[in-house]
Amino acid sequence: MTAHELFQNVNPSLVQDMFQWMRETDRNLYKTALGSLASNRKLRPQFVQKKSIADQITWMHNTLRLKSSDMIAEHLLQVYFMKGQEEMLASFCDGLGIEHDGKGQVEGNLPETLDAEKLKAAIDTLLEKFDTGLVALYLHTFNLQTPDGWSALADALENDERLKLA
């Protein structure tokens, strides 16, 4: 699943939370996201900025669903998880034995394969600690980090009902 397809399938409340977090913690990131999406649609950012916050977020979510917004969508998901969900990333890396900086930023290269047993345990831990929809969105986003994803993770995303986006 590509990034824009994630935005087509994710619960809108997660997108709302993501953009609210951006607005509250990193106003420049929020403005950049809005500006990039407006430019991508050949609109002036002021057109979108005149809308209410709720309408801005709805407009951004709808725009991120478009194939033409795929690169922006992937980048926003990466930034959100790297800055806004550090504990989740660190927990996942710890569960898989991936070296990281303590905040989930991988040090070195990502592994070529994921051990299925460690992956299942790491997923179970995430689902115990965090919102199920957020975990599913994170794992789908993580699987985009290599060209073909990881087969063990793709299998879990396809077959584990707890990891469905909708």
UniProtKB/TrEMBL annotation:
Highest taxon, organism lineage: Bacteria
Name of protein: Uncharacterized protein
Organism: Oceaniferula marina
Lineage of the organism: Bacteria, Pseudomonadati, Verrucomicrobiota, Verrucomicrobiia, Verrucomicrobiales
